[in-house]
Amino acid sequence: MKNYARAPELQGRNKLRKLLAVCMLLPLLLFVRVVSAQEPQDFSKIEVQTQKVGGNVYMLTGAGGDIAVCVTGDGIMMVNSSFSQMSDKVEAAVKKLSDKPVRLVVDMHWHPGDTGGNAYFEKQGAVIAAHENTRAIMISGTMRDGVKYDPFAKDAIPTLTYTDRAAFYWNGEEIRLRHYPHADTDGGTVVYFATSHVLHSGDSYRTDGFPIVDWEHGGSVKAVIAALEDMVATYPPDTRVIPGHGPHPMTVADIKPYIEMLRDARGRVEKAFRDGQTLDQMKKEKILSGYENYSHHVSFEHFTEVLYREVSEKKE
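The structure corresponding to this sequence follows.
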């Protein structure tokens, strides 16, 4: 026979057990959500698009960061190599531009969407180059947004590095590498094809939304703004720009509105913080209202968190 006399007590205990179980699982669910948000797309459905930017330089778009391809002389130079799953498609797109091999790949930074094809092209004879901080991260492995990244395969690790600036000539094309400390990350590289008047801005400038600031590796919105301001001051306004992410080439003049957006967004959050507002209050009032077009890969809420963390950080 069932004992109905204790049923209310047992039901209460069952509800409590369920509540505790949910509380214990919540951190795991949030972690899974972060990982899932970073999972790559279905690469079989993504095609590589090619556009001529200027002079010897072309732009490839598809998955991951935008790729610059410099076609001159007896070999190809690339900036970025996309995800590893896109290597054959990237190679096919390059072969339509030239039958010469890829001899040099410059990594914009360490993120897998920009360096995943390194090993593929290294095995075919390419030299991999990057800022020294990028190489260090790829050797050691790292954590980002709660996700662990193992050390990169030996074939994917850059064997040619630089510190602040570097310049060289690639079959007649003058190429300049520039490191902007602590912009989108601490190992970011900007590449200027001086002969063709084309700039690859790296991830500090992207046309598909708010920047993804690699906080764990020294990135900050303040430094992104400083880097972009320096680019605008350094290169002529009509210089063609390949953004870190985005479907089309732009110009240096196009960077200015992006700077104004970042400066205004950061200023709003900084003022609210000084006025005593909490992060939850800023999110609730949608403090970044007006910038809906930038809330794509990085949401309003997340970019508000990035800015709040930056302006509230205690300096030593």
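The domain at 45-254 is CATH 3.60.15.10 (Metallo-beta-lactamase; Chain A).
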